[in-house]
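Quarterly update from the structural biology core.
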Amino acid sequence: MRFVHIKKSLTRARDRIMLGLLGVALLAGVAKAAPGSELLSAWEASVETNAASIDHSAWQGILDTYLTSHPSGINRFDYAALKANAEDAAKLAGYLTSLQELDPRHYSRQEQQAYWINFYNALTVRVVADAYPVDSIRDIYQGWLPLGPWDDVHAEVAGMPLTLNNIEHGILRPIWRDPRIHYAVNCASHGCPNLSPTVYTAANTEALLEAGARAYVNHPRGASFVDDDFLLISSIYEWYVEDFGGTEKTVIDHLMQYAEEELAARLKTFSGSIDYEYDWNLNKP
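Predicted structure, tokenized:
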């Protein structure tokens, strides 16, 4: 009988090891890949004759109160303070509820773009604040694999459940086909482009996308030279290379489009090695 117990213990230990190895393999695969841009066709419709706008003032109030600039150039959001303020937490929840009560397909395409960007960013803030304290958004997940909250359902619009990945990769990327979307949606991390202190609207989205691109490309987390033969750029340009033309050369071309004079000059003659980096630490104060 003792031999049987030992054999069962060894089997359980082996199963745990195999399960752990499987998890490591899956995580390694996730680290090297990112969701593709796959259109959720249900969200393609728009009404271009509708001149109505969507009210994002509640979200602006949250940003005004809890988002601050930082000497590092990376904006910081005070998730702890928001979580501790029941009134403001309720305001954010109310804002998200108001967005979910709308059907964005009844609005113009420009109004929709602002709607989805603000929705994504506000929803991300709520997810992090609800789970706070955490050191990284990747620490927030359901199930046993630490894959972050992006595939968890956090909202419902027009009767359809939505994840953060649905909004970014099923709506924003495939409908607008604009690489600058990556400078607008914020994943609550140091490596991510800044959370904009100004809400997106149909009138200002183009200007904010341009400003976000320039700010990120010209910050070290976007692109920086280690030496003349070694360029370090954000992993965003590796994960979503298809959005930036599909090759390292087209990525460089994109960077040059937004780079300031000194960086642009170095990029123009660059022929060395490229490596990628991303900091997942939470963008808290």
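The two ends are 59 Å apart (CA to CA).
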